[in-house]
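Handout, page 2. Input:
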Amino acid sequence: MNQLQSMRVFVKVADLGSFVGAAGALDLSTAVVTRHVADLEARLGTRLLNRTTRRLSLTESGTTYLERVRHILDDLEGVEQMVVARNHEPVGTLRIVAPVVFGLHSLAPVVQSYAARYPDVVPDVTLADRHVDLVEEGFDVGILVARHMRSASIVTRRLTTGYLTVCATPAYLAQHGTPTRPEHLLSHPCLSRPAEQGGEERVFTGPNGEVRVRPTNAIVANNTEMLRQFALLGMGVAILPSYLIGRDLASGRLVPLLRDYRLPQIEITIAYPSRLHLPAKVRTFIDHLVEYFQQPGRQARDPRTVAPARSVTESTKVVADMDDLSLPELAADAARPSHKSARSRIAASSPF
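Output:
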């Protein structure tokens, strides 16, 4: 028989002084209660109860055993209550992993507002542009950008949608001309990630259907924030996600190009291990993320539908003045969190 259950039965018999009474309290038969106590005595090799036809009494060994067992059962109940509380109340450390650029530009404000709402949870954020195993590495929640995953042990939920934007500075466009069709990118230096070296084919959808072009790479960087800085310095044309350059477009520092064409959208999703017995800290953080990005003004907008902040001519001086900014100053500006939204093995990294 189950030793733990036998211990519980023995305590109940000792408290009530009756096999029959214990059987009724535990919703068991008297025979089963008797068997539990007999099994304990056989395991211990000693008698715990003195039995007569009229009453039960504890032996000396039974008294000692009862005292210790009662402490064990009380401790066990306390542990169970603590675990249940942690599953129903948001407490403890919440381990979050997200791609570097998305984390720097979009994640800080939502983590701050969550921490303010649930002060008993300690967010532990890891930014990583690599493949991450949520289960093996002990992460509670992962954010995926433009990645798809299939795994029976991982659950995904859509968070928001980002948009890819072809852009350049007004100063660059004033000097090199403004491309108006995807084919025009072939005559402009393009800024790309390493995976795109050699020219990645881009598929645009325009007024006359699909247009496929393979832009010429001029500068390559393994981080989209660095590509943004190159673009802000007027070094070429870049294709960057809306959550990264929303403020640049709104201020006129970057100008959206090819407004009659669109690139595939970027799906941003949440991933977490299994729906079964989901801890409260994970459940509330996922709900908070979704609520945050659904608020007005935080959903990413397609730059093609937003009127430019200034004309190219009007903006040229604004961005030309930025030539005096040092690279660290540009990096500091980029590091400020933006409120613009955008297999157990997953990719926390992103090509964007």
